[in-house]
Amino acid sequence: xxxxxxxxxxxxxxxxxxxxVALVFFVFFVISFITNILGPLIPDIISGFHVSLALAxxxxxxxxxxxxxxxxxxxxxxxxxxxxxxxxVAFLAATLGATGFAAFPGYGMAVTSLFVIGAGMAVLQVAIxxxxxxxxxxxxxxFNSAFAQLIFGVxxxxxxxxxxxxxxxLGATGGDAGGLYGLxxxxxxxxxxxxxxxxxxxxxxxxxxxxxxxxxxxxxxxTDEESAGxxxxxxxxxxxxxxxxxxxxxxxxxxxxxxxxxxxxxFLERYHQVDPHTGGADAVAYFWGLMTxxxxxGMALLKLFDSRRxxxxxxxxxxxxLSAALFGPAEVSRLAFPCVGFFASIMWPTIVSLGLNSVxxxxxxxxxxxxxxxxxxxxxxFIIGWLGDRYGLRSGMLFLYLTFGFVLSVGIWARPxxxxxxxxxx
Length: 426
What we know:
With 426 residues, this protein is mostly helical. It contains 18 helices and no strands. It folds into 2 domains: 11-228, Growth Hormone, Chain: A; 229-414, Up-down Bundle (Growth Hormone, Chain: A). It has helices at 13-35, 38-49, 53-81, 83-103, 107-136, 141-170, 179-187, 197-214, 231-238, 241-272, 276-301, 307-327, 330-344, 347-358, 363-372, 376-391, 393-397, 399-413.
C-alpha cells in the first residue's frame, strides 16, 4: 500500500489505521497458529524421533523458554528500534526457524528451530499491543484487545485441524496427493510427514516479512503502562513479595494450559487408543475452541461478580474436568479434556489484571515480568514428561493439580488495590 518515497500519496488516517489494525489481528492469528500446534505434534515427535516423554517435552520447553528469555529484552529493543524493525526481525527469525525444521527434521534441529521461532513470537507479542492501541485508537483498545484474543482462539482451533488434514494427505494411507499436498510431499521426509506443516509456517512468516516491509507504520508513543522502564524499576519490583506471587501464578497458569494441551493427545493415544492424527488433534482443537467460548462467558461473569470469585469457580471447574479426563472412560476423557480449556479461559486475563491492580506503580516493567512467566509453558510440560517416564503419563499429569491449585489460590489471597467494576458496584 504505502511506500517510503515522497511521491506516494499517503493513506488517510482512517484507512491507514484500519489497515494496521487488520495487520495486528493477522499477526495475532499467525502467532497462535504457530504456537499451539505443539500439542498435536507430541505423539509424532515421540514416534518419529524415538524419544522418551521427557525428551519430547524438550521441544515445547525450547519454544516457551524463549518467552522467558526474550520478553523483557524485547521491551527495551522495541523502544529503541521501533515496532516495524523488530517485527521484521521477528518474522525473519521465525521463517529461518521453520525452514530449518522443515528441511532438516532431526531432533537437534527441532530444538534449535523451536527456540528461534519462540524468540520471534515473544518479540511479536511485545510489539503488537502498543501498535494496536495507536492504530485502533485508545478509545477502542479494550474492544480491539478482546477481539484479538478471539482471533487468537480461532487460530488455535484451526491449527490442529490443518495439521490433521496435512498428515491425512501425506501419510501412508493418504493416497495420491496433488496440488499443495503434492508440493509438500515432494519437499518433506516421507518418514516424517507431520514436519511438513513447518513449510506452511515458513511461507506464512516470509509473507509477513514482505507485508510489513511494504507497510508504513504509525508513530507509537508508548504510555507508562507499555514502557519497558529502567533497571532500577525492576529491582524495586523484585523486592515486592506480591510481584513474585503473581509471576509464579502466570507460570502456573501457562503451565496448566500447555501441560494439558501438549499431553492430552499422547494420553488419549496411550490409555484409550485414540488416533493422534484424528481424535487426538480434534481434542486439542476443541480445547482451544472451548477456551474461546469460555472467554466470552467469563467476560460476562466478570461484569457481575468479583474477579477473584470467578477465578476460584473456573479453577474448580478445571480441576473437576481434569479429573474426569484422567480417570474417566474413553468417551468421557475425549470430552473432558477440551472442557478443561473452557474453564482455563479467564485465568490469564484475571491473573494479569489482579497483578497489575495490586502494585501501585511501574506497571510497564511489571507487565514485562509477568509476561516472562510464559516460561511456565516450558517448565510444566517438561516436568509432566519427566514424571511420565518414571511413573506413567497419567501420574505425570497429576502435577496439573498443583498448578491449577495455585491458580485457584490466587482468588483467595489476592488483595488488589482496585477491584473489577461490576454492575453491583455501580
